[in-house]
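Prompt: Have a read of the protein record below and flag anything odd:
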Amino acid sequence: MEAVLGLMVILLGVSHGVETYCDGRQNGTQCYGALGGTVDIQLMDSISEIPRYYLLKDSLKILHVINNTVISNTIERRSLFFLSSRIFRINNLSRTDSGDYTLQTFNSDGYSSGERTLQLFIQAPVSSVLLVSECLSQGEMRVSCSSEGGDSPLYSWTLDGRTLTDAELLSGNNETNNITLKQHISGHLVCSVRNNVSNVSEEQKTCSFINCTSINETQIVGWVHANRNNLCIEPTTEPTPVTPTAVGTSWFIFGLKAAVVILSLSGIWIWFTWKKKTILEVSAVPQRMESPDNSVLMIEMSPYSNT
């Protein structure tokens, strides 16, 4: 069987509208398109001078070109043929777009000059990855990796950017979605999920050993997730260190306050002293009582006084 398994995929993102490229210039090529996305099929060389050709999908003619002019395109509402590049683009791919696509060419006399077929497979891209892990009592770490969406997902693992080795695994391997890390394996663990039209990954830190006091003042000793270690009490503020400059400033402020208090008390004492002196001076002045004109002055004479 003369089948050439060729695949050339260009990924522009894992979302609705993923674009892929398929080189269909060789017979038996296998191509992949993303569900809801776009595929560009290279039918022939851009400099090709074939005067007439058909493109059939499962024996149904969908494209007819004569002398570099599109005669018919049965799916033109979601497809486009670029005459200059000989690329046939299909948008908004669905499951029904999967199948065999056959290009039939003819010479100027209308005789067949060749035929080649490609297979197009439509896959749903992986949309997200979920990591679920558990820290075991001896420091091992059990991890499960699952993907949302995506046809025929393939799994792989890395630790700090390098491929996870069998020597670091207690169970599973680099291509399974469930693994268990051995004791004292630390770093950033990444699970990648891919298929022919997408590639998505998720990262998580490995387990770490803690020995601390919890919020309710109980001692905690064991293995926990390094990125979820919120069991230990951590100081909310750091104590401010005392420097010689700070000490000098404190004494200066204390002295200034003391001087203000002394001056205030002195002022109060002076005011009371002046007030008391004023009251005494007023009391020492004799009081003269004025009497009416017809008042009588009485003088008591002593019998022993001289006359």
